[in-house]
Design a protein that fits this description.
This protein is mostly beta strands. It is built from no helices and 25 strands.
Length: 351
C-alpha cells in the first residue's frame, strides 16, 4: 500500500488546465426558483429514515431504478444493495463487486443498466494501487424472486485512479462516462463499448487542498452533466465549478467558479427550475439549497454525514430526494449509515 501523497502521478499537471484558448463559455439560463417552493426563509424540512444500517456501514452513493427501487453502494464493503422506498421489503445485497473492498459511484447508463466504481481504499484513506475499476450491473431481467445473482462485468481497470467518486453518463450514444477521482484531482473518461480509458482531465480546481480542509485529501467529488456542461464540487475548497465540454468531455473553455462557501460539498442534483440540492458532509452535515443563479440559502434539512442524493422516479415520489449517509465517516460521533428521504415539494431532473 502507498499513501496518497506519495502516489499521485499527475502532480506536474495539477497547477493548470491544458485546454484550447477560447472565449469564455456562455452557459444556458435556467428559470428562477418559484417562491412557493423551498427558499432561504423556509423552515428546515422533515427528513424520514427509509433504511438504517448497523454501525460501521458506510453508505456512499445512490441511484434510483426505473421501477422506483433504490440502489446504494457501500464504501465499507464492495456491495450494491437494493432498498425498497416503502419499507415493504428489507434491504438486500443485489450485487458484489469482485476483487475490491469498496463500491463507490454509481450511474444508470441505459434503462436498468448501471455502472459502478469500485476499488480498495482503507478507512485511513490509503489506496491499493491499480485497484480501481468500473463494473456493469445489468438489472433488466432481475426480480427479487430470481435465484440467479446479478451478473457483474468488469468494463475496465483505471490503473492510475486513486479514489473514483462521482460517476455519471456523459454521452450515452458514444458510450462515454466520466468519473471524478478525489485523490488524484481529475476526471477520468471511459468508453464502455471499447473499455478505453482517456487521459485524465485535470485542473487546479479539482485538487485537494494542502493540508486537507477536513483532514481528508478530497478534491473533486460530486460530478454531473447537464447538456454539454460539466458540474463538479471540490470537497476541500467548498466550491462548485462548471465548464462547457467538448465531445470527449474535455473543457471547451475556462472552468467557471459557480458557487462558493460549500465546505464539505459532496454530491448534488438539480430540480426542474435549475436549482441545486447539495449534500454537505462533515462541515455542515446538511442538505443545502442553491438557487439557479448560484445563491446559497440556509440548510433545508440537517442530516448525519450525507453523501449522495437522487430524486424519486415515480408519480408518488417525484418531489422526494433520497439521501445516503455514511453515519459520520468524516467526523466524530459515528453511527451506522442510512438512507433518508426529504420531500422538497419540487420535481427533480435526472442527469
Amino acid at each position: 500500500m502507498q499513501l496518497f501523497n506519495t502516489m499521485t502521478p499527475f502532480a506536474l499537471l495539477a497547477a493548470s488546465l491544458i485546454v484550447p484558448s477560447l472565449a469564455a463559455p456562455s452557459f444556458p439560463p435556467y428559470p428562477m426558483f418559484e417562491k412557493r417552493c423551498v427558499n432561504e426563509t423556509a423552515s428546515p424540512l422533515y427528513s424520514e429514515v427509509v433504511a438504517q444500517f448497523p454501525n460501521g456501514t458506510k453508505v456512499e452513493n445512490i441511484v434510483i431504478r426505473p421501477n422506483g427501487q433504490i440502489l446504494i453502494t457501500l464504501f465499507s464493503a464492495p456491495e450494491v444493495i437494493q432498498v425498497d422506498p416503502t419499507g415493504a421489503v428489507a434491504p438486500f445485497v443485489i450485487a458484489t463487486l469482485p476483487d475490491v473492498k469498496s463500491a463507490t459511484g454509481i450511474t444508470e447508463f441505459q434503462s436498468d443498466v448501471f455502472y459502478v466504481g469500485g476499488g480498495t481504499t482503507s478507512s485511513e484513506f490509503v489506496t491499493v494501487p491499480q485497484s480501481y475499476a468500473v463494473f456493469q450491473l445489468n438489472l433488466t431481467t432481475f426480480t427479487p424472486s430470481t435465484p440467479t445473482p446479478v451478473a457483474v462485468t468488469k468494463i475496465a481497470t483505471i490503473p492510475d485512479a486513486l479514489l473514483l467518486n462521482g460517476i455519471t453518463a456523459f454521452d450515452v450514444d458514444a458510450g462515454l462516462l466520466i468519473a471524478a477521482d478525489s485523490f488524484v484531482g481529475a476526471i477520468w473518461s471511459l468508453n464502455i463499448f471499447t473499455g478505453e480509458v482517456g487521459e485524465p482531465i485535470q485542473s487546479a480546481t479539482m485538487q485537494p487542498t494542502t493540508p486537507p480542509t477536513n483532514g481528508i485529501p478530497f478534491g473533486i467529488n460530486g460530478l454531473k452533466v447537464k447538456g454539454r456542461t460539466v458540474y463538479y464540487n471540490n470537497y476541500d475548497t467548498g466550491i462548485q465549478y462548471r465548464y462547457l465540454a467538448n465531445a470527449d468531455a474535455t473543457p471547451a473553455g475556462p472552468v467557471e467558479t459557480f458557487v462558493t462557501g460549500l465546505t464539505g460539498a459532496d454530491d448534488f442534483e438539480f430540480d426542474v427550475y435549475g436549482n441545486t440540492y447539495l449534500t454537505r458532509n462533515y462541515a455542515g452535515s446538511a442538505l443545502q439549497f442553491i438557487s439557479a443563479d448560484g445563491k446559497v440559502s440556509k440548510a433545508i434539512a440537517g442530516l448525519k454525514g450525507p453523501t449522495s442524493l437522487q430524486w424519486g422516479r415515480t408519480a408518488a415520489d417525484n418531489t422526494v430526494v433520497y439521501i445516503t449517509s455514511d453515519g459520520g465517516l468524516a467526523g466524530p460521533n459515528k453511527v451506522g449509515g442510512a438512507v433518508f428521504k426529504v420531500d422538497v415539494g419540487v420535481r427533480g431532473v435526472h442527469v
